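Thread: Modeling a multi-component assembly for a lab meeting

Hi all, long-time lurker, first post. My supervisor asked me to bring a structural picture of a complex we are working on to next week's group meeting, and I have zero experience with this. I have the sequence lines for every component (754 residues in total). Could someone generate the structure of the whole assembly? Inputs are pasted exactly as I received them:
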Amino acid sequence: MKIRLSAVLLGLLMPALVLAGEYDLTVDRVQIDTGDFVKEGIGYNGASPGPVMRFKEGEEVKINVTNNLDETTSIHWHGLILPFNQDGVPGISFPGIKPGETFTYEFPIQQAGTYWFHSHSGFQEPDGAYGAIVIEPEGREPFRYDREYVVQLTDKHPHSGDRIMRNLKMMPDYYNREQQTVGEFFSDASENGLMSTIRDRMAWGDMRMMKADVEDLQGFTGLINGRGPEQNWTGLFEPGERIRLRFINSSAMTYFDIRIPGLDMTVVQADGNNVQPVNVDEFRIGVAETYDVIVRPKDDQAYTIFAESMGRSGYARATLAPEEGMEAAAPQLREPARLTMADMSGMPGMDHGSMAGMDHSNMEVMDHSNMEGMDHSKMEGMDHSGMAGMDHGDMMMSKGGANDPFYAKGSGLMPTAANGGKFLSYADLKAQDPLYEDREPTREIELRLTGNMERYIWSINGIKYEDADPIRLKYGERVRFKFVNETMMTHPMHLHGMWSILDVGAGQWNPIKHTVSVNPGTTVYMETEVDAPGQWAFHCHLSYHAAAGMFRKVIVEGGPDSTQAKADAVNEEGGEA
Amino acid sequence: MSASKFMVAAAFLSISAPVLAAVGHDNAHGHGAASGSPGRISEASRTIKVEMYDMYYEPESISVKQGETVRFIVENKGNIVHEFNIGTPEMHESHQKEMMMMVEHGVIQGGKLNHDMMKMDMGNGHSMKHDDPNSVLLEPGQSQEVVWKFSDKGNIEFACNVPGHYQAGMYGDVNFE
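Re: Modeling a multi-component assembly
Sure thing. I ran the full set together rather than chain by chain. Output:
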């Protein structure tokens, strides 16, 4: 990356030093080698992932993006607050960058923290078009650490994004290798009884889905900073140092459960915003989220950064070590997660519906499936904390894990830490320095997250993007969004341009995020101070869900100086996911 | 300091000191480091102002002479509850477990301290009073004094043991001249 960072002193006209930086990015065809396979993909400045872009809060940046592809491209600066015409969504913010063209982004950096950037055109992002952004704060960094690393994850698949989408459309379970087998049927039957097992399978069949639908894209290799498990990206440290790890999940579809056996992690930032520190043993990172953690390895040994996919169909692995070449054992993947009836509770017809008879059979089924989920995960976690004779405090700590209010009660997705310790919950996230005053929302907008798995259609309120009207917001209002997840998949909802104030029940301390994960069978609230005029994208960040229609355009009407949103001037054609 | 805040401060200071036990515990681990002892204000050679912000101190390190008694005026200028605690890293680590319990029981709630909860009997004569003379636990805006005699050279830090804060880097070094 050529950086021409020029601190320009505008002579006597301006008393202050204006920090300005100019950066160049090229969008290129690249080779991606995961260690398991080599594929053609898309990258920046000749590599995937692209460079780490380092900015400083208060800086005016100018980024020249040259498109060396034979198709239109774009760059979206994920999580950055900027004028809407710099947001990089073709069809919503701008027309896109044509082959051979250079587009210059110009915007002020008005925040600090860990973010990322990616193409918002077609499936270029899953094909490799992503990179990291690190913004140094204007004042001092409120945390102390001796070194820092970006740890950027992705789920690299041997197939191209276009091909994956075609296959999913044709056969939604094309990439689901975790389907329950005949063998599993018989073992369930011997444990739970034949009739109850048959009823269980029939109930799931009625709902047009399978228990194992935790991940609809399997068969990937998890990469960290572009390196597969065998290629083992390694971050060096001196024992005793504090290390800040900036985790970014740039996956197309995959949530990861991350731990570093032998090290406590202290979460200090989520989605670029500082949070009150939380000590955890493990955390789940949704697609498009970022979490910054501080670790302090005291011993002269290697530690494995282990990131298991939520459905346990794959993993990414990296190492922290005092010297290059040292490594620690990589743990085994845990049992695959299985959805339970609790994860279905948001489905219409489950709790209210014409099928009175179904309730009864469901009850029975529910018991079994819940127990199954508990056996595998919860019990294990509880045993450990009990056996170690841990004190009162540690016992209480498990409450975030085994009983996370952001999962349906009895959910098969409920995370527990591999060592029985603390698993981060959204409920633990509290702003360190709240950006907005707490106030009553002016209105509520309900967004039901909906889908038809059989046809691989994903939608909001039952309507997919191409058939939907934009969501219209008024500048200056505070909108409360109510997400009701009526599907059996987890959706990371990303609103561009404005912060999502996630309601964790902490009032003024509610954290601000750019991506809010909504688990199956749950309702999650977030509020948005509508403070950015223009038009913005709002969508599920799972690449193939966004492309299948779980996407909306948001139009903010009005503005601070009644510059009626220039939005009207922009063409109103549909955007690309 | 307002009258009501002064009362709170007085309540903190009036309670006696199990700090020696903590020091003994530390010695048992063979580190041989003690952090010093409560000092008398009449012996204080100087006053150091320490400001607590969200996740850092100003200043972040201080220099003392062995045997010196220092009066600290500690002010919480952050948004949330912070502690100023003088001890060895090992002492801080064991104190962090107690502080975790205080959070779990709602004694420390972001920017507030629940004083009723602190007095609650936890069984075996224990309570969650935060009354060690080597430390103060302050809500935003509060200010309080710690008078400390640095009788022994050692690996001493001042630190905030509210869960996660120390790990995030809220500590300062005590250097011996």
